């Protein structure tokens, strides 16, 4: 049973396979958060909440003089309100008609719903009725009539609880929301560290682990996108937790716009976490009877370290966020012409790339930026989704047809949310660009943003893109967006509602994407925002993979993909083999290393095949064969981080099949050392009682015959899963700089 409700004492206990979550509506109707962590029983943990008289932490009026120990400022709360006695960071702040900012939420009731709730217009975890249950707790502010419904979706098997909030104005005067977080979580005790993911364009998802200290710590975005700078993913773990041990909590915001994830360690050493839309660019008017849904947060808990925590996220995102035909299907091995040609190509050139790629076993050709309007560089043309037939030497239909005739699938790049000042679209509809009247807008990559909060713009984009895609044999679309949003203003919003722009933009984007994926269920959509500027669970609801970063350097990618792996599955990470010296870093890495790293993603190529030597082409053929062999394992297997690119010499990861009968261990030396310390891979996810054979991938074995594996026993010997887990094996040393090894672990008996 995933839920236990003690109606007499108003205690709500949610159970997943390995975790328990509990709340209690107390004698004043305040909804207390009483427990989240390792699985336990249903007993009322509210009884263990400690109260004492704290100076300057006031007491609710209704207690009169009887009790000074009860304070909203010190009790753990489920959804805190601003201005009525809780002085910590709070989840909900409103402005009432009289200008006051107070809100005081009290429990009014609850209901249980079958299956997992959905959210109109917003991405959310979905599940079969048998896989999930929903609890709704209703709170109300008596003065304003504001109703807050807290939604909980319980996915028992996946140790996951989702949260969302629905706010309705049941009063008779407008209420203005000024901050409305999607969740509040209070820990009564605990010594925590938190892990966040920071970066910049071309260097996303770098891992930062910090102590939770007194005061407020946060990550967020006011950039209109979830951003390269901070990812909407936060992990909290007990001090000392590592990949395999310790209590950890994970929070993934299912939203692609501005967000704020805040932590406060308070005067009593208690920790509060909030996650929601960033309040700096947010306000929302709720007229009488109006409702606003807030985006969802996926919460998961692991009592066995970060590896298990990530595994939970991987499954939830892969199986309960990603949708459509491509969710489970092997993604095509693609070649993208961006780093091969940038804007400088002709139709013939593209066909040659596609033809050469086909010979190597590549399956899909993607035509990137530069095929439309007046777009010879990145200064013009966005918005004019009309093929440049002069440049392509033919119509788009003909080009796509010729590529398909070569035996390749055809894919196309689009950037529908952007508009160049130098474009016919801007000349005819300047009011569609996001600008503040009377101010000069900030340009970025010399472009502006289309106002996706407007229905007319949404309709125009849907129509234009539908018409374009209908006419060509296209099976893949790369949906790019190459700037952050500022100068926020929409010509169609009243001045009092301009604070709604950022959220309305995201809702508009989701609405356009929903229609397009409905119109084109066969097409594989890949998200992109100058790489990983919008790498979030929200986008993955519409497109099952996202281009991780504009950096294709294999060694840089180790860090980016390592960071992303904490919250996102390999099947979501767009990753390509590119040329050397790498265009972003100038670094030279072996082709095998680039292949190995790209295989920890959706796998593809982005280079000029015509420039490759016959030997390199042969190596690509072999890489593709390796990938084909392991593709199902890579896409659906259980991913483990065995060592980090931030330490030591070698990054090692592993993907094991859920039955524990097979695994692929990949190792890349990111740092060279003389007389190196051996790198030990302790293989996880195998079955202790089964016996396995280790095999250096043929290609590597051929290339480096002197580097044998395993050390200590011959190629026909086997070893138990238990030994591989406890003792591990030593990865062969690096023979070249930035050497990679792929080692397969295959079951061969019961011993
Ligand atoms: C940014 C993307 O991340 C690149 O891969 C490429 O598509 C360019 N945009 C094209 O402008």
Describe the secondary structure blueprint for this structure:
Layout: E1 3-6, E2 11-15, E3 19-25, E4 31-38, E5 92-95, E6 105-114, E7 133-141, E8 146-155, E9 160-169, E10 175-187, E11 192-200, E12 203-211, E13 215-220, E14 233-238, E15 248-254, E16 259-265, E17 271-277, E18 284-286, E19 291-302, H1 305-320, E20 334-336, H2 338-341, H3 347-360, E21 364-367, H4 389-392, H5 396-405, E22 409-414, E23 418-420, H6 424-428, E24 447-449, H7 455-470, E25 474-479, H8 501-519, E26 524-527, H9 537-540, E27 545-547, H10 554-564, E28 573-574, E29 576-578, H11 591-598, E30 604-606, H12 614-636, E31 638-641, E32 650-656, E33 662-669, E34 679-681, E35 691-696, H13 698-703, E36 719-720, H14 721-726, E37 729-731, E38 740-749
Parallel strand pairs: 20-21, 20-30, 21-22, 22-25, 25-26, 26-27, 27-28, 29-30
Antiparallel strand pairs: 1-2, 2-3, 3-4, 5-10, 6-7, 7-8, 8-9, 9-19, 10-17, 10-18, 11-12, 11-14, 13-16, 14-15, 15-19, 16-17, 23-24, 31-32, 32-33, 33-38, 34-37, 35-36, 35-38
Helix pairs in contact: 7-8, 10-11, 11-12
This protein binds (2R,3S,4R,5S)-2-(hydroxymethyl)piperidine-3,4,5-triol.
Describe this structure in words.
This protein is of the alpha+beta class. 19% of the residues lie in helices and 30% in strands. It is built from 14 helices and 38 strands. The strands form 7 sheets. It has a 9-stranded antiparallel beta sheet with strand order 6-7-8-9-19-15-14-11-12. Helix 7 runs parallel beside helix 8, helix 10 packs parallel to helix 11 and helix 11 packs parallel to helix 12. It starts with a strand and ends with a strand. The mean pLDDT is 96. The chain binds (2R,3S,4R,5S)-2-(hydroxymethyl)piperidine-3,4,5-triol.
């Amino acid at each position: 049973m995933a839920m236990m409700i003690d109606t007499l004492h108003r205690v709500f206990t949610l159970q997943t396979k390995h975790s328990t979550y509990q709340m209690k509506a107390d004698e004043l109707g305040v909804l207390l958060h009483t427990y989240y962590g390792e699985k336990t029983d249903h007993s009322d943990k509210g009884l263990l909440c400690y109260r004492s008289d704290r100076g300057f932490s006031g007491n609710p009026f209704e207690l009169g003089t009887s009790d000074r120990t009860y304070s909203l400022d010190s009790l753990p709360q489920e959804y805190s309100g601003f201005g009525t006695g809780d002085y910590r960071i709070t989840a909900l702040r409103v402005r009432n008609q009289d200008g006051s900012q107070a809100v005081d939420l009290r429990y009014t009731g609850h209901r249980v719903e079958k299956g997992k709730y959905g959210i109109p217009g917003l991405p959310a975890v979905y599940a079969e009725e048998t896989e999930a249950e929903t609890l709704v707790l209703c709170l109300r502010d008596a003065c304003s009539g504001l109703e807050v419904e807290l939604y909980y979706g319980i996915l028992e098997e996946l140790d996951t609880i989702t949260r969302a909030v629905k706010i309705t104005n049941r009063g008779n005067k407008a209420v203005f929301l000024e901050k409305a977080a999607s969740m509040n979580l209070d820990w009564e005790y605990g010594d925590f560290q938190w892990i966040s993911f920071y970066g910049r364009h071309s260097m996303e998802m770098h891992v930062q682990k910090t102590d939770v200290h007194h005061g407020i710590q946060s990550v967020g975005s006011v950039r209109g996108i979830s951003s390269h700078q901070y990812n909407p993913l936060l992990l909290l773990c007990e001090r000392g937790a590592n990949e395999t041990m310790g209590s950890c909590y994970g929070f993934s915001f299912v939203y692609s716009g501005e967000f704020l994830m805040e932590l406060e360690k308070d005067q009593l050493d208690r920790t509060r976490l909030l996650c929601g839309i960033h309040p700096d660019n947010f306000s929302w008017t709720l007229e009488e009877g109006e409702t606003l849904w807030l985006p969802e947060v996926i919460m998961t808990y692991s009592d066995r370290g970060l590896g298990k925590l990530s595994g939970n996220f991987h499954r939830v995102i892969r199986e309960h966020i990603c949708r459509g035909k491509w969710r489970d299907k092997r993604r095509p091995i693609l070649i993208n012409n961006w780093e091969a040609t940038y804007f400088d190509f002709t139709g013939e050139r593209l066909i040659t790339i596609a033809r050469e790629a086909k010979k190597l076993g590549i399956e899909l050709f993607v035509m990137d930026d530069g095929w439309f309007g007046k777009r010879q560089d990145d200064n013009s043309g966005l918005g004019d989704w009309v093929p440049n037939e002069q440049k392509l030497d033919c119509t788009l239909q003909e080009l796509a047809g010729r590529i398909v005739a070569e035996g390749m699938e055809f894919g196309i790049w689009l950037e529908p949310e952007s508009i160049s000042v130098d474009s016919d679209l801007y000349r005819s509809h300047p009011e569609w660009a996001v600008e503040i009247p009377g101010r000069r807008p900030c340009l970025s990559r010399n472009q502006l943003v289309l106002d996706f909060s407007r229905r007319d713009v949404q309709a125009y984009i849907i129509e234009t893109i539908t018409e374009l895609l209908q006419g060509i044999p296209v099976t893949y679309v790369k949906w790019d967006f190459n700037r952050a949003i500022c100068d926020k203003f929409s010509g169609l919003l009243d001045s009092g509602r301009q604070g709604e722009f950022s959220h309305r933009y995201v809702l508009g984007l989701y609405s356009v994407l929903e229609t397009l994926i409905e119109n084109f269920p066969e097409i594989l959509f890949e998200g992109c925002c100058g790489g990983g500027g919008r790498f979030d669970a929200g986008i993955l609801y519409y497109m099952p993979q996202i281009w991780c970063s504009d950096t294709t350097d294999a060694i840089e990618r180790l860090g980016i993909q390592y960071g992303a792996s904490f919250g996102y599955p390999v099947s979501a990470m767009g990753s390509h083999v590119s040329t050397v010296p790498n265009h972003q870093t100038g670094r030279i890495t072996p082709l095998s290393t680039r292949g190995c790293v790209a295989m920890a993603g959706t796998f593809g190529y982005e280079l000029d095949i015509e420039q490759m030597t016959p030997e390199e082409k042969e190596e690509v053929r072999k890489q593709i064969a390796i990938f084909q062999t392991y593709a199902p394992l890579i896409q659906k297997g259980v991913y483990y981080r065995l060592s980090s690119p931030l330490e030591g010499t070698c990054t090692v990861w592993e993907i094991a099949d859920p039955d524990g009968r097979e695994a692929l261990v990949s190792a890349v030396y990111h740092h060279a050392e003389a007389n190196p310390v051996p790198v030990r891979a302790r293989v996880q996810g195998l079955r202790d009682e089964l016996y396995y054979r280790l095999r250096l991938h043929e290609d590597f074995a051929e290339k480096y015959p002197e580097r044998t594996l395993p050390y200590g026993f011959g190629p026909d010997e086997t070893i138990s899963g238990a030994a591989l887990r406890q003792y591990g094996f030593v990865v062969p040393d690096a023979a070249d700089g930035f050497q990679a090894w792929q080692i397969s672990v295959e079951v061969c008996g019961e011993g």
